[in-house]
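Q: what does this look like with DAU bound?
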Amino acid sequence: MKNILVTGGAGFIGANFVHYMLNNYPDYKIVVIDKLTYAGNMDNLKEVADNPRYAFYQGDIADRARVEEIFDAENIDTVVNFAAESHVDRSILTPDAFIMTDVVGTYVLLEVGRQRGIERFHQVSTDEVYGTIDEGSFKEGDPLEPNSPYSAAKAGGELQVRAYNETYGMDTVVSRGSNTFGPYQYPEKVMPLFITNAIDDLPLPLYGDGKQVRDWLYVEDHASGIAHILHHGESGGIYNLGGGNERYNIDVTHQMLEHLDKPRSLITPVEDRAGHDRRYSLDCSNLHAIGWKPAYEFESALEKTVKWYVDNEWWWRPIKSGEFKDFYERQYAERLKNAGK
Ligand code: NAD
Ligand code: DAU
């Protein structure tokens, strides 16, 4: 049996990955460590709470003693590191936690994993480490030119992983995923923010001209891609993991409003994000060559996602009435005021 430590398993992609692994790999035990920051939510793991092949530990990946305790208690042989501060706008407001978790936390996991002689370490990275690209698509060997405190911290964590592979011969793989969407995404990210705001007839604060391009990946495809790389990636390998669905933000916004039958007048152009990357685009031929491709088609997955938020107000309403409110005020109050809303 593999004993897989999934860090950040109470977050959006981590929780979807836990569901995916428990459903598809009946011999594995899935052990979650999560600090339960504002983004961690035990409701995301409610469905698996009674599964005997699952265990949950609250803890910080940067807390070495806690990490060692969990490795030993659960005989961990594999790590999949999702735990991170993940929101670009928050990294612009307050970068500190990004360094502590995305850089130092990754280092602690690597160090404990190295000492315990684990079989494989999978680092969940992001297409944002490359920076922005006007034309063509990024390949894995391209230089890293991260532009936000978030993406710079992710690049820092990823480079530690590379060093542990080169220096200590640790078996590591890295996935660089693109913009992910689906159920259980904290409503600070553009899709759940705009869907839930539109449900309540609130303005949708669109940054700049809305002509930024993101490559959208359905969350179950992100989970299956990570599982595929974990099993079939070569040691030291880095794999772009994109959905192949490049869309302008404004177009995706129009589609979400259509599914909700809400007017375009809710769209409110506001002051742009500082250092906003214009376009992300991934060449995923290396991952396709080892046998993975996405299963979901963008338009139907988007419709399904909108429906999930419509049907699951129990999940997002409590979030939007809590800590989120302070963040929303800091991030959007001035912008919306300047836009006359
Ligand atoms: P999220 O913010 O929804 O979840 C992050 C989780 O990590 C939360 O449960 C949080 O409590 C936990 N966490 C934060 N700091 C921690 C710490 N110090 N110790 C333990 N747990 C901690 O993030 P997400 O969108 O699910 O992203 C997961 C991973 O995927 C991140 O590494 C992110 O960089 C990467 N990624 C995200 C996307 C995306 O579009 N969301 C795309 C590519 C890559
Ligand atoms: O590309 C992968 C990355 O995707 C991940 O590494 C990050 O963890 C994840 O947060 C996401 O980053 P983005 O910055 O692309 O996602 P976000 O949902 O914040 O924004 C998507 C696009 O929408 C971006 O161009 C900014 C724009 N946007 C976002 C918000 C929150 C708006 O126009 N208005 C908004 O209010």
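The first helix runs from residue 12 to 24. The mean pLDDT is 98.
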